[in-house]
Amino acid sequence: MNPSPLLSQDPFPQSAAPLEEACAPLPRDVAAALLFAFSRRRAGDTRPVLVTAPKAWFVEYGRPYGPGIAGVPLILAPAASLAEALWVMEQGLRSGAVALGLGAVEGATLAQTRRLDFAAKQGEAVGLILSRGLDGLSAARRRWRIATQPGAADPEDDRAPGPARLLAELTRGRGERPGAWMLEQDDETHRLRLADRLADLGPPSIAGTGAPSGLAA
Q1: Is the CB of residue 181 less than 8 Å from the CB of residue 196?
Q2: Which pTM does this prediction carry?
Q3: What burial letters (b/e) apply to 86-124, b meaning 16+ CB within 10 Å?
């Protein structure tokens, strides 16, 4: 297992770009990547979230459960092929009917991701590609590597599980330096925030990160 990268002291990029990509290197990281993806929708945007992928992806990883994600309205669109999933994602983004278009479209070409980027801008939405690797060219403005991390201890009971945590590593961002941030789920806002008390992993607090009230997304 590769050691965790040193956490960045740069501000976390809170505002999502029109198109981003999140890589889940291992099967255990897929749930964390989904949590990260849902957090990239713009705060206050109440439009539904579109999730599309070839049917085999839903068979392998299961279907996201909307009520378990702070009641986010979901549109699940299993596709017969990669080409169909790309078409569904593009049309959904362009329509303006969704806040976030999330697609497990492994192997999309540069030209195809450019179309997704343009569609997200047109629909004033956020597009996010889920992948298992960051090989190849992509029009995604940011490319992330997401890894599941041990949760923090419950502040009121050391034996109870605390907030879920993940490590978000920015491997490429236009005009941005690569970096890594430890994020955890906020049970009150149902969004991700920068985690504090990061023992042995980097800066011990969110001071100086630029994230208001500790919220990362």
Answers
A1: no
A2: 0.83
A3: bebbbbbbbeeebbbbbbbbeebeeebbbbbbbbbeebe
